[in-house]
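> example.struct
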């Protein structure tokens, strides 16, 4: 029997906005940026689509010149749409939902929710990608244009990744080669999950939304002070439905950050489980990595560059390689609009007109939203903000949740907690309340929720008792047990060990983007750059004014050796101080990017290349001025090579320091500890004994660089003998070997820097 009314929903892939319209029978409407139904997108026309509801359901057709396709097939006439279809208006995809219609497979077609892959005896290859014209369009910025192939042949059904940036995963394992799909296999691409039923790849979640189940979670650590095992979380059970905004609060030290990090996989729990859409998070972490948004307490944005540029670099680092500049600009406009900073696109984050604390937090949030995550974790994202800004931020988080993102936020401020769907209250690592905020006061018998802290601190009732009371409550039955009952069994993938990140993987594009960003940062901080560039000429002029090359040939040779020593020490000083803070000063950003997809080697290369250029400029000025003022007799190319290599190896030493420490102060404090031995063991200040000579040869840049400098003196100077008959300029090795040793030490420091950064991968 024909229905009199029908509802159609358009879920935008751009911002996950849902647009719903109820139709009367035989009603005709248009959709577009100025149609009866407003649908937005970069190339959506004012009236782009005609829609008619009748006895055959919904029929859509192009209403003007704009291209329309359904599931990748262009249409020119009225064509039916069914639940789960992907409708493309230009390049903007909308998933159609027909709430009153049972989902079914389009006959002979490729309905997105249930893709029949072996309905043909003929071998065929289906393309999965983010564009509408794919056989299998997955509208997410994290999906590559040509992401994966499904190959249906007589030997079975295979899946193959096409070199995508964010990977194709089968049962939580990133695909490295073509594999045959087995019944029950879970395929994940970005936040989309499918189960292979034998003849269908069935989408198990809609539009990539995330449902979180936390079951029996506990976390043990060894307390460094007492050497005893300490339980930070105990028996945590929660279920968060897709699109819910959940606030985590509790007394100080109650385990909020620990729980947040256990739920997002940054610091996994010791036991229990965390499921995202019924898939074990820890076992399949790599498949979720790119689609989890995380805003830590510290800002994750470089302050020295323009807002739009900071976001563009993030987009280039996180989005697939084939994302073009138009798409990146669209994403930047989308996220700045979302965090209500559209007018700050070309504003500097820091000077001359710094963004406010709230605006800075919103930029950090925008950084995370660039990849359009489906689940967003915010750790005290409103701390330090005034009450008004806190309110705006909380409302913003609630709006993000209405865009079908699951949002979990730790906060201390309870003033604006009403805007969230559910609150989690922790006390001494135990769950003492999980339910709607408006029910919390009634549950605890309080007038204001802020009084709950005093109630919990009252030692008469222990944390275990509070947890027990909650487990016995109707709220626990409704919000934990009731929801938990809808969770399917633990998937097989839970048994898998997480894949290790390759240590020496090198992504040229990533290295290029990071290098450009680093150049941008160095050039934006003009005052600092000027100070760095002025150091060398100032020292060179000082040397030129103080030193006089006087006396006989031997005295002059000794003086030139002393000047060489001073130049080498200056170069080592420049190199170390140029780099000693370069990692640690951006540690929160490094850690966040590393947790997504940052490679250690591309990261270090991006630092080394600009810093090498800086060293070269400094050494040219240092040597050029000193050489001219003092008429030195060192060969210019040879001595420049020795100076530059010394400065560069010292840069590597500074990076190694920066990679191991966790604060700027520590980096600055350690630098002299490394620099003083370079002076003492250079073989220029004090004569070296057997042991000290061995230490100098095996670890001192200054020892080999000074020997290299001396080797560039003219032969007649090197042939001079002093009064005792010994060479006036004693040498240890020839120039090539000296330079090779300096380079080798630089390489060793780079390896130490790699080890320091690798160490930071360990969860706390
Ligand atoms: N690695 C660790 N070893 C020992 N104790 C730890 C470790 N990590 C956290 N803790 C302790 O566990 C407790 C919970 O820490 P967590 O940071 O999760 O609390 P929180 O509720 O977020 O605290 P706050 O509100 O003060 O930020 C704290 O008492 C903390 O000192």
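> example.seq
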């Amino acid at each position: 029997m024909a229905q009199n009314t029908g509802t159609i929903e358009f879920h935008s892939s751009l911002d996950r906005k849902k647009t719903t319209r109820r139709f009367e029978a035989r009603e005709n409407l248009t959709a577009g940026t100025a149609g009866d139904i407003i649908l937005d997108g970069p190339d959506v026309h004012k009236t782009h689509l005609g829609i008619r509801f009748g006895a055959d359901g919904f029929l859509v057709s192009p209403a003007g010149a704009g291209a329309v396709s359904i599931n990748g097939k262009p249409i020119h006439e009225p064509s039916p749409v069914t639940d789960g279809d992907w409708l493309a208006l230009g390049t903007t995809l909308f998933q159609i939902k027909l709430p009153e219609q049972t989902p079914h497979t389009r006959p002979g077609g490729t309905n997105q929710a249930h893709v029949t892959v072996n309905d043909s005896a003929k071998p065929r290859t289906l393309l999965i990608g983010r564009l509408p014209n794919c056989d299998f369009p997955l509208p997410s910025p994290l999906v590559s244009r040509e992401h994966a192939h499904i190959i249906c042949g007589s030997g079975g059904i295979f899946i193959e990744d096409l070199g995508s940036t964010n990977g194709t995963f089968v049962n939580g394992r990133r695909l490295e080669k073509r594999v045959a799909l087995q019944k029950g296999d879970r395929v994940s691409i970005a936040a989309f999950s499918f189960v292979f039923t034998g003849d269908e790849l069935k989408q198990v979640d809609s539009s990539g939304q995330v449902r979180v189940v936390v079951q029996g979670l506990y976390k043990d650590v060894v307390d460094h002070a007492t050497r005893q095992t300490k339980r930070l979380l105990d028996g945590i059970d929660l279920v968060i439905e897709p699109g819910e905004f959940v606030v985590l609060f509790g007394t100080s030290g109650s385990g909020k950050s620990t729980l947040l990090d256990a739920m997002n996989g940054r610091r996994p729990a010791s036991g229990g489980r965390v499921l995202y859409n019924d898939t074990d998070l820890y076992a399949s972490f790599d498949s979720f990595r790119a689609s989890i948004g995380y805003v830590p307490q510290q800002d994750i944005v470089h302050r020295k560059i323009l807002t739009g540029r900071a976001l563009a670099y993030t987009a280039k680092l996180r989005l697939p390689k084939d994302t073009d500049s138009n798409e990146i600009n669209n994403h930047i406009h989308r996220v700045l609009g979302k965090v209500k900073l559209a007018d700050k696109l070309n504003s500097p984050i820091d000077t001359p007109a710094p963004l406010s604390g709230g605006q800075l937090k919103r930029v950090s949030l925008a950084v995370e939203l660039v990849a359009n995550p489906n689940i967003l974790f915010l750790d005290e994202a409103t701390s330090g903000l005034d009450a008004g800004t806190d309110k705006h931020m909380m409302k913003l988080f609630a709006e993000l949740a209405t865009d079908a993102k699951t949002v979990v936020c730790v906060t201390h401020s309870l003033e604006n907690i009403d805007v969230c769907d559910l609150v989690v209250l922790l006390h001494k690592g135990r769950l003492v309340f999980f339910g709607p905020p408006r029910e919390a006061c009634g549950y605890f018998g309080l007038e204001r929720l802020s009084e709950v802290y005093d109630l919990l601190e009252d030692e008469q009732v222990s944390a275990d008792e509070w947890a027990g009371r909650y487990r016995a409550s109707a709220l626990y039955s409704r919000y934990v047990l009731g929801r938990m009952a809808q969770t399917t069994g633990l998937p097989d993938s839970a048994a898998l060990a997480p894949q290790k990140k390759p240590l020496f993987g090198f992504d040229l594009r990533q290295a290029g983007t990071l290098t450009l960003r680093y150049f941008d940062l160095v050039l934006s901080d003009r005052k600092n750059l000027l100070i760095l560039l002025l150091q060398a000429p100032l020292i060179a002029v000082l040397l030129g004014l103080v030193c006089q090359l006087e006396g006989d040939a031997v005295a002059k040779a000794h003086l030139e050796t002393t000047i060489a020593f001073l130049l080498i020490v200056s170069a080592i000083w420049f190199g170390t101080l140029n780099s000693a803070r370069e990692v640690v000063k951006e540690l929160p950003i490094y850690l966040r990017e590393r947790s997504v997809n940052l490679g250690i080697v591309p990261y270090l290369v991006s630092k080394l290349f600009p810093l090498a250029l800086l060293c070269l400029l400094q050494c040219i000025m240092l040597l050029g001025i000193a050489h001219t003022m003092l008429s030195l007799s060192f060969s210019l190319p040879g001595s420049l090579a020795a100076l530059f290599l010394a400065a560069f190896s010292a840069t590597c030493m500074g990076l190694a320091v920066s990679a191991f420490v966790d604060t700027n102060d520590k980096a600055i404090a350690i630098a002299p500890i490394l620099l003083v031995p370079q002076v003492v063991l250079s073989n220029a200040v004090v004569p070296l004994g057997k042991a000290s000579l061995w230490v100098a040869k095996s670890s001192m840049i200054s020892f080999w660089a000074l020997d290299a400098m001396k080797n560039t003196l003219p032969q007649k100077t090197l042939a001079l003998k002093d009064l005792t008959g010994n060479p006036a300029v004693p040498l240890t090795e020839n120039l090539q070997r000296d330079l090779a040793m300096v380079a080798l030490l630089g390489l060793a420091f780079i390896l130490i820097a790699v080890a320091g950064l690798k160490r930071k991968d360990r969860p706390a």
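> remarks
Residues 313 and 513 are 7 Å apart (CA to CA).
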